[in-house]
Specification:
This protein is of the alpha+beta class. Helix content is 43%, strand content 12%. The radius of gyration is 36 Å and the shape is elongated. Bound molecules: flavin-adenine dinucleotide.
Length: 1036
């Protein structure tokens, strides 16, 4: 954008500013910038130190408490404790040493907060170079005050460090007098210390102004006749001081520095150009400073005559195509540029807004949200911007652009970027609206009013266009997911947002939807994935330029290396969104096949035989894994087909033969201990690579944790495992561990994964999932009542649960616990999921429950009380209020595994039935010749095939379109599979006669499980309700 156009009303900056932002008074009103008020009798300014010149201990403490999860206000309370004779004041008067103080103070804090408080770490932070830095605004003020010939002094309640030097992180040369309480043995607000200071200055009280952040200290000074300013924030205090003194205390423009050597621009030609353009008659100099943020486009402050301007230009050197879309201008400064009016105000560079009150932080984010809504509400046509960008298909174009940008600056292969480049175009959301889009909407691109939470200006418009507004919403939430140590773009994912007062990303998004009158989007994770992808591409560009020596920031090289980190964050969102494995929509006549099952009969215990499928031609790998619904194991891709056959051999050689022994262990006195045979078979399965097959490829695309099978591929293998009650555990594919492992892979932190996921994946530990409660109808998860309460650095849980499968197993080390953190939050935001180590005191198992008399030892189904169970805060999964979302994720793909296994139960039951009826004779002929038996066999075959097709279809849609899109298919198969299996198994039991009910055959156990799964996996009625709801919604 060129200078000329910038000053025309059609320019974008102008458009938005006139549309909805108000100008504020320009700071510089004339050549006499700040007129002297005259008559000032002041001869000195006296500054307190902490809270005036450097951050106050209270403010430092508040942030340290958030970081260290210490109850808020502990340090401040302890500092005040005991008043005059408390440890803090005695320390200030040097009556106790630093060591003595820390001992006493630490004890006090721990007593107050009932938790151990590492006060040493607070003290180190307080006195660290990073924190104890003089506020630049104060340094400027002191320079100006002294330049006017006034004296300056520090009057500080101060202390000695362990090295016996007083803590004074200030340049003494700035002050004529320094008075410290630890040196004098007197503390403010004792009048003697003020008098001492005045005496050393050689002044009367009325000749000085005193600044302090504490009311009692200010009051004491005022009572002596000193003019006072109570400091709440340094910026405002300097303004008050300016008003009292009558001259400016500002040296220059905030956030600027002298122009860097490599970024210099020719002042003379610029001055001539601006004079011509703006019609300025001046012989005065052109003042030029460089803003200290902005990685890509160098930005300058210009002061010429009475005009304060900002110039933004493209960086020098070769540029990536279409990057830095600043319109071309004559070569006045070497590269294209534009100029705009300077708008003074505050820019918050740290998004955690240190030093502000929680309510103020919230107000800042609310204002940010509001201004975004205003931008998105601008009618492009009404402001003449209808041609500002192409209509529609914004996201696909953005994806293409940023892929191109990334490719142009690529320096090495980054796996997550490669996956995203494939994933993004396959998961494009349907664009709902086209509005003006800022394109780089972040807190540090907003200029705020210095005194109220109001946005005065929005900066950095060069990525603006017409497009999908949700991009801006997602982009403004990046900081929520980045750590505070992240260079370039600081985040706050390691801070407690509730304590800070900053709305969580979801709340921020809800605020936006509410203001815009929109329903929440379903593709939020796509927008986040894309935003992080774009950030990664930007960082890569910065890195690339640093390699070619053109970066406008010294940090460029370091920041560019962060591409990989950010791309992994992007990929996490892609995984949450879901994953469509296949490239093309399939349905190439996938449903034609004939099959004959259990071809060979062996014993009644061992099923036996082959499910061979003859009609589907030999699959090509492409067909098998890239589109067609694979309804037969023989149509799987060669490696998966080989895996299937390996599993089949394993079942025949090891699992079915072990069943009698495993079954009798379950009926023995030793049943509550794991069977040694199971452990032995687990090792064998591991050795054969038949281990952790369950984790879907979409959740584990790099096969870090499992075999990387698609849902359809796993459906075939899971069905096969389902033909034995023991195989799932032997192959480490059994519930509830599978759901819990998937939960950890999808949502766990690296620390949580290291602690829990790894032992589970290795089969060394087991786990349980505790949601159901006896006192409430738990099929509606919002009913659950168990409480999760915050207490210091812990969550304390109390609740009564039952039907907790696996909790009795001595190997069970982890309980994934669902409870309510906030019963007053919206219905689906009340629940949270905590990882509870099973050896935590307070977990009391009341009894094992039985299912039709079966105990399912050694895991069992337990009734349990959780009484004041203290769990460290870091064991929370995803964050408070995310439980419902997690439970849905956990119970999504994981739960169709039960359906896959139910097909296996049914196949096994039918095989047993066929073998039985062929071998038994009644009323003169084999049972198999009885018409009713034949009808039963036919009925079972048909029902199994129907259900299998539905299972495979659900798995297929999950692979193709993601779990969310498969909601109807998942609900349909959950509705169908358990009752289908119950009927098929029941027919088999009937054909067996009394033996079918005995434990000589697996039928009774199969039946029990199939029956239980009619509600253990969510009641039939709930699935029916879902199917009906979706049917009515989408198919009218
Ligand atoms: C073998 C087994 C293992 C289990 N393992 C676990 C486990 O590991 N962890 C865990 O937390 N829980 C587990 N459960 C519990 C299971 O998840 C619950 O039983 C299930 O969610 C139903 O909750 P509820 O028993 O409280 O039934 P309720 O919610 O009281 O429902 C009772 C009945 O009400 C009817 N109903 C409910 N909703 C509707 C509706 N919308 N429309 C019409 N009718 C409706 C249904 O017929 C339902 O069966 C297990 C259960 C079994 C049997």
């Amino acid at each position: 954008m060129c200078v000329r156009s910038c000053f025309q009303s059609s320019c974008l900056q102008w458009a938005w500013r006139t549309a909805f932002l108000k100008h504020i008074q320009r700071r510089h009103q004339g050549s006499h910038r700040w007129t002297h008020l005259g008559g000032s009798t002041y001869r000195a300014v006296i500054f307190d130190m902490g809270g005036v010149l450097i951050p106050s201990p209270g403010r430092v403490a508040a942030e340290w408490e958030v970081q260290n999860r210490i109850p808020s206000g502990t340090i401040l309370k302890a500092l005040m404790e005991g008043g005059e004779n408390g440890p803090w004041m005695r320390f200030m008067r040097a009556e106790i040493t630093a060591e003595g103080f820390l001992r006493e103070f630490g004890r006090l804090c721990s007593e107050m907060s009932k938790t151990s408080v590492p006060v040493d770490s607070f003290f180190s932070l307080l006195t660290s170079e990073r924190v104890a830095k003089q506020f630049p605004v104060m340094t400027e003020a002191i320079t100006q005050i002294r330049a006017k010939g006034l004296q300056t002094a520090v009057l500080s309640n101060n202390f000695y460090l362990p090295n016996q030097k007083s803590f004074l992180p200030l340049d003494r040369k700035q002050f004529d007098v320094v008075v410290e309480s630890c040196v004098e043995g007197i503390c403010k607000p004792d009048p003697r210390i003020y008098k001492l200071c005045l005496e050393r200055l050689g002044l009367q009280p009325s000749e000085s102004i005193f600044l302090d952040d504490l009311g009692p200290n200010v009051k004491a000074a005022a009572s002596l006749g000193i003019h006072t300013i109570k400091v709440n924030d340094p910026e405002t205090a300097v303004k008050e001081l300016e008003a009292l003194l009558g001259f400016t205390l500002r040296l220059g423009v905030p956030n600027t520095q002298p122009v860097r050597k490599t970024m210099e621009i020719p002042k003379d030609s610029l001055k001539k150009y601006l004079k011509d353009l703006l019609g300025i008659q001046t012989t005065g100099p052109l003042e030029l400073l460089q803003f200290d943020h902005g990685q890509s486009n160098p930005t300058y402050y210009i002061s010429l005559a009475n005009r304060d301007l900002v110039l933004r230009k493209k960086p020098p050197g070769t540029l990536l195509p279409s990057a830095h879309a600043i319109e071309r201008e004559f070569s006045v400064v070497g590269t294209p540029f534009y100029v705009m009016e300077y708008c003074p105000g505050l820019i918050y560079k740290d998004p955690s807004l240190p030093g502000l009150e929680p309510s103020h932080r919230r107000a800042i984010y609310t204002a940010m949200n509001t201004v975004l809504c205003k931008i998105h509400s601008v009618d492009p046509q009404a402001v003449g911007l209808e041609d500002y960008g192409k209509q529609g298909a914004y996201i696909p174009r953005q994806v293409r652009t940023w892929v191109k940008q990334y490719r142009a600056s690529e320096t090495s292969t980054i796996p997550a970027m490669e996956r995203l480049i494939e994933w993004l175009p396959l998961h494009l959301p349907h664009q709902q609206r086209t509005t003006l889009v800022h394109g780089d909407f972040r807190l540090d691109n907003l200029v705020f009013h210095p005194e109220k939470p109001e946005v005065l200006a929005v900066l950095d418009w060069e990525l603006s266009t017409l497009g999908d507004p949700l991009i801006d919403v997602a982009y403004s939430c990046l900081a929520h997911y980045l750590p505070s140590s992240f260079p370039v773009l600081r985040g706050f994912n390691d801070c407690d947002l509730t304590q800070l007062g900053i709305p969580a990303a979801e709340e921020y998004f809800r605020m936006y939807c509410l203001q815009m009158g929109l329903p929440p989007t379903e593709n939020w994770n796509f927008y986040m994935a894309f935003s992080f992808f774009r950030l990664a591409a930007i960082l890569q560009g910065v890195y690339w330029r640093s390699l070619t020596g053109q970066a406008s920031s010294a940090h460029a090289e370091q920041t560019g290396k962060l591409t990989e980190f950010v791309s992994n964050l992007a990929w996490d969102f892609a995984v949450k969104e879901g994953f469509r494995v296949f490239k093309e929509m399939p349905f190439k006549n996938p449903l034609t096949r004939s099959c004959h099952t259990w071809a060979r009969s062996q014993s009644q215990w061992y099923p036996i035989g082959t499910r061979s499928y003859s009609s589907v031609p030999e699959a090509s790998p492409a067909h098998a894994s890239r589109g067609g619904l694979v309804i037969s194991p023989e149509s799987l891709s060669p490696p998966v087909r080989e895996l299937y056959h390996r599993l089949k051999r394993f079942m025949e050689q090891h699992v079915y033969p072990a069943e009698p022994e495993l079954q009798s262990h379950q009926a023995s006195a030793a049943r509550w201990s794991p069977s040694p045979l199971i452990e032995d078979l687990k090792e064998k399965a591991k050795a054969e690579g038949l281990w952790n097959l369950f984790l879907p490829l979409e959740a584990d695309p790099e096969k870090k944790y499992g075999a990387g099978l698609t849902n359809v591929e796993y459906a075939h293998l899971c069905e096969l495992m389902g033909t034995s009650l023991y195989a799932p555990e032997i192959c480490n594919c059994s519930a509830p561990d599978t759901g819990n492992m998937e939960l950890l892979v999808r949502y766990g932190t690296e620390a949580q994964k290291a602690r829990w996921l790894m032992p589970l994946l290795e089969g060394k530990a087991r786990s349980c999932f505790a949601m159901t409660e006896p006192q409430v109808a738990s099929s509606d998860a919002t009913n659950i009542e168990a409480s999760i309460r915050e207490e210091d650095s812990f969550y304390v849980i109390n609740g009564h649960k039952w039907w907790i499968t696996g909790i009795l197993d001595p190997r069970c080390q982890l309980c994934v616990f669902m409870g309510k953190t906030d019963p007053h939050a919206p219905r689906h935001r009340q629940q949270s999921v905590l990882l509870v180590p099973m050896d935590t005191p307070g977990i009391k198992i009341i009894r094992p429950l039985t299912v039709y008399g079966l105990e399912d030892a050694p895991g069992g189904h337990g009734e349990v009380r959780f009484e004041h169970v203290h769990v460290p805060k870091e064991n929370m999964v995803l964050g408070p209020g995310r439980g419902f979302e997690i439970a849905q994720g956990r119970l999504g793909p994981g739960r169709i595994h039960h359906c896959m296994r139910l097909i296996g139960f049914s196949e096994r039951a039918l095989a047993l039935m066929k073998a039985r009826v062929k071998s038994r004779v009644a009323f003169g002929k084999p049972l198999v010749e009885q018409g009713t038996v034949l009808a039963d066999i036919a009925q079972s075959r048909v029902e199994i095939e129907q259900a299998r097709l539905l299972v495979l279809r659900a798995a297929h849609v999950m692979d193709l379109a993601g779990n969310k899109a498969a909601a109807l298919d998942i609900a349909m198969i959950k509705m169908v599979a358990p009752s289908m299996a119950s009927r098929v198994i029941d027919r088999a039991i009937q054909a067996f006669g009394a033996a079918g009910l005995s434990s000589d055959y697996p039928l009774a156990q199969f039946f029990t499980w199939a029956r239980a799964l009619r509600f253990a996996d969510g009641p039939d009625e709930v699935h029916r309700a879902t199917v009906a709801k979706l049917e009515l919604k989408h198919r009218i």
